[in-house]
């Protein structure tokens, strides 16, 4: 429940995996594993595992454009995959001018753009899915001032977009709060 944080349904991942990016597409939930090179596919209603698909490389963030699954691996590359086979469809290299943008982490599609957390930074980069060019930056460093002073928090690494209500949520690893943000141009 978004208002209370109460967990309504869950499933456990096998101990051998470190679960990372997760996304919903067409009544399925897709989850990356960090270093096991395994995509786990679940039925969205029952949370029962449907299948596992192998891939090459690390899994950090996962998003969808409604047709493909988009995966980050901690580099400056975003890989577009076919959701049925997880075969690579294409890749984009994220650049701000001539500079590659490294450490792309959590991904989310927001109003036709790819948003990505930059690992170890309080930043989100806004990316063109067509060519990987940076469209803008969002500085989230002020959110830390709203966290308890003694909180054992880690990196910002959560982005969620509620397209129906046009709401953007962000959080971080071990953060006790979820923030709804609005972007002011």
Textual characterization of the structure:
With 185 residues, the protein is mainly β. The protein is 0% helix and 48% strand. The protein contains no helices and 17 strands. It has strands spanning 19-25, 28-33, 38-43, 49-54, 61-64, 69-72, 77-81, 88-93, 95-96, 99-100, 104-110, 113-118, 123-127, 134-139, 156-162, 167-172, 179-181. The strands form five sheets. It has a four-stranded antiparallel beta sheet with strand order 1-2-3-4, with no helix packed on it. Strands 5-6-7-8 form a four-stranded antiparallel beta sheet, with no helix packed on it. Strands 11-12-13-14 form a four-stranded antiparallel beta sheet, with no helix packed on it. β16 and β17 (179-181) form a beta hairpin. The radius of gyration is 16 Å and the shape is globular. The model has no long low-confidence stretch (mean pLDDT 95).
Structural class: mainly beta
End-to-end CA span: 30 Å
Oligomer: single chain
- Which spans of ≥5 residues are poorly predicted at pLDDT below 50? none
Average pLDDT confidence is 95
Largest sheet: 4 strands, antiparallel
Order of helices and strands: EEEEEEEEEEEEEEEEE
Give the beta-strand count.
Answer: 17
Task: Give the CA-based shape.
Answer: globular
Q: Radius of gyration, rounded?
A: 16 Å
Strand content: over 45%
Q: What percent of the residues sit in helical stretches (DSSP H or I)?
A: under 10%
Specify the number of helices: 0
Strand order across the largest sheet: 1-2-3-4
């Amino acid at each position: 429940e978004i208002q209370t944080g109460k967990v309504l349904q869950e499933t456990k991942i096998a101990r051998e995996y470190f679960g990372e990016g997760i996304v919903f597409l067409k009544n399925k939930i897709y989850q990356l594993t960090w270093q096991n090179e395994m995509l786990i596919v679940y039925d969205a209603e029952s949370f029962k595992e449907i299948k596992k698909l192998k891939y090459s490389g690390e899994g950090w963030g996962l998003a969808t454009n409604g047709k493909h699954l988009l995966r980050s691996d901690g580099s400056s590359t975003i890989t577009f995959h076919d959701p049925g086979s997880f075969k690579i469809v294409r890749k984009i290299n994220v650049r701000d001018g001539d500079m590659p943008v490294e450490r792309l982490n959590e991904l989310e599609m927001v109003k036709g753009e790819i948003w990505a957390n930059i690992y170890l930074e309080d930043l989100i980069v806004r990316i063109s899915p067509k060519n990987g060019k940076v469209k803008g930056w969002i500085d989230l460093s002020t959110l830390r001032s709203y966290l308890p002073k003694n909180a054992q928090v880690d990196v910002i690494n959560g982005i969620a977009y509620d397209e129906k209500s046009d709401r953007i949520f962000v959080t971080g690893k071990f953060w006790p709060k979820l923030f709804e943000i609005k972007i002011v141009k």
